[in-house]
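Our preliminary data section would be incomplete without showing what the modeling component actually yields. Below, a chain of 238 amino acids is followed by its predicted structure, encoded as tokens that our downstream tools consume directly.
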Amino acid sequence: MNKKVARVLLLSLGLMGCSQEKNQAPAQTSETISSVLSEEIPKESKQTDSTIYSEAESSQLIMAPKIYTESEKQVISQEFLDWASYRAEIGSMAVSNYLLGHGDWYANTVNGEIQIQNIGQGIPGYDHFPIHLIGGVVFYTSKEPFYGYDERPNSEAIAVGFHRLADLNMPITQYLLGDDGIVYELGGMNPDLFSFSGGYGLYADDGTKVGGDSPYVFLVSEDTDAQVKYTEILMKYD
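Predicted structure:
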């Protein structure tokens, strides 16, 4: 067992149940999956910045939401995915940009709800949400020796999710790119998170929440490299 695998296994134990439920204090860990990945990247290729992103500072870091065109979202998402794919390959992990299937999905964050998709009849609609999704990625450890971008989830059934492809004994980590300029993160080993809908909630056509509110809350990611990269990408569209 090499050093990285040992550390990730220890981290996995610390992340069990770390998928945050409302009204519960976030689990405290000394390092995250993102920090393990970060240390695998050669120093000369890493982004550096003096800004430290934390949940406590999140209210000060929120950008005035900008309305992006669909083509801009696609380009932004692809550029972030390219960066994440290289990072995953270096860290011996897989990454996918497949998030959800059909439906009016949302996610709870520390800064309010983020609209994932709006497929229904416009209820509750764009203006209901303080944040809107531009894109996102999911990091996981593949059961097979597969590293970097993984397109296999695109052909998996919604009910199957990542269960057939991912090592369920290792953490899975989701990054959501908000139009407020922040990368939000949710991760752990809770079996729910390996479903494509894991961590999300769903609105019905009448604007009510299916099955009640989602119990999960995405935090402001402490992955400074990801925050810096995302800001760098968005600056091209100011």
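Residues 3-237 form one domain. DSSP finds five helices and nine strands in the chain. Preliminary results of this kind motivate Aim 1 of the renewal.
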